[in-house]
Amino acid sequence: MIILGIDPGTAATGYGVIKKDNNLEMIDYGCIETTTDYSTAERLNILDKELSKIIKKYQPERIAIEDIFFFKNIKTAIKVSQARGVILARAAKTKMQIIEYTPLQIKQAVTSYGRADKNQVQQMVKLLLNLKQIPKPDDAADALAAAICCANSTR
Question: pTM here?
């Protein structure tokens, strides 16, 4: 089974593609980045186009997306929500199964501790996927963690 994990954002949306058979295997990861040189609408359009390419290339069966849980800055929450909307719409158009996880659920699934810090999550992503180093940028590591959460939560 191929799983696409997504850590949504407007400036940077992390993605991680893993394969689950008997083991977990990292296929690809990275970040879809946009700059403030573009309008919000253009940035969301870029996100949609790039995500569409990733989905077409890897043909995932499931998409695991991090849900918005808590934001101190409402403006940031709105921007992330807009990106999530684009991601959810793209996934729905491709008819793949969409599973949303809170950051707490992802941390729990990856580290067995729901309050794990970013470094603990990254170290476990590295360990679980048998990688030589922690995936960078952080958004990509978070996306891989979401994919691992899905893999570990799916029968």
Answer: 0.94
